[in-house]
Backbone:
């Protein structure tokens, strides 16, 4: 299994994401945003958190137009796995790989704390290592995590069981308490909380490990 | 040729920053501000000389990058 972690100027969770993938058993390659192709044999692409391009224009908007973005889109269109965390989630919505947009937090403040999430579906290779309705503790660190989507699309993602994680106590105003959402083929996940920051007892928790383990484990079998 | 793009949140999308500005204006004693919506203005200097072609191109820029049409609307003025 090979995981590619993208680095944009301003990414700051790329190393942590690479370590989480490695810990789950993946070979990790680091990919620069100016590369126009992914290395051969990549199974999953990780789009990390941070402040790509200084959050200029809109969070994730410039990164979504970078040379590597077209390769990530082609990978997803072929049925490849992609996970976008925090700024990575913003990038994936700007690329239209995931529905909706991330707006300024309803309380206007940057939120940096550990929050409780409810696992809203186990029917994905990202969430199959959890139990339905399980509560996990994962940190958030964002200014623009307020998930917004039009009513029709919201109804569709609910009907299609595409909400991966919900906030137990909504910190940012996200519609339907959505913390993470899946693509139609369930192989692209975007989430604002940082599972890669809870994969070691030294982090103060390991609730994020099951996400990486189930994903890499699933691909090992495939 | 110059273009001025105005990007605003769509009607119906809650503008939490505009609302904070409205409350701050009230705190300063400006009464009767019933609503505030805030957005951004982007000015472009264009080499184009044909107004219609320039407008079409700037609209394409808005669709692709300058606005996120999931939550934002835009208008283009060419001068």
Residues:
């Amino acid at each position: 299994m090979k995981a590619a972690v993208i680095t944009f100027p301003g990414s700051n969770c790329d190393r942590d994401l690479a370590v989480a993938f490695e810990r789950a058993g993946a070979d990790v390659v680091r990919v620069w945003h100016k590369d126009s192709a992914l290395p051969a044999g990549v199974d999953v692409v990780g789009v990390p958190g941070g402040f790509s391009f200084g959050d200029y224009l809109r969070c994730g908007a410039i990164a979504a137009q970078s040379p590597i973005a077209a390769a990530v889109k082609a990978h997803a269109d072929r049925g490849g796995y992609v996970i976008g965390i925090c700024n990575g989630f913003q990038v994936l919505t700007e690329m239209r790989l995931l529905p909706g947009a991330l707006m300024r937090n309803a309380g206007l403040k940057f939120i940096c704390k550990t929050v409780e999430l409810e696992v809203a579906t186990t029917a994905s290779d990202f969430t199959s290592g959890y139990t339905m309705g399980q509560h996990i503790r994962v940190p958030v660190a964002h200014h623009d995590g307020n998930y917004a989507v039009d009513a029709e699309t919201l109804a569709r993602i609910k009907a299609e069981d595409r909400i991966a994680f919900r906030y137990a106590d909504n910190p940012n105003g996200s519609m339907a308490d959505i913390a993470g959402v899946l693509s139609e083929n369930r192989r692209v996940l975007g989430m604002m909380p940082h599972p890669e920051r809870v994969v070691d007892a030294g982090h103060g928790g390991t609730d994020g490990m099951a996400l990486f383990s189930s994903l890499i484990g699933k691909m090992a079998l495939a | 040729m110059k273009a001025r793009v105005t990007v605003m949140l769509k009607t119906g999308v809650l503008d939490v920053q505009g609302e904070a500005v409205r409350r701050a204006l009230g705190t300063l004693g400006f009464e009767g501000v019933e609503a505030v919506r805030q957005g951004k203005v982007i000015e472009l200097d264009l080499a184009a000389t044909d107004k219609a072609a320039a407008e079409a191109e700037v609209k394409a820029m808005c669709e692709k990058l300058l606005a996120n049409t999931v939550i934002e609307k835009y208008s283009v003025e060419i001068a």
Remarks:
- The interface with chain A takes residues 13-14, 16-17, 20, 64-66, 68, 70-71 of chain B (CB under 8 Å).
- Chain B has two helices and three strands.
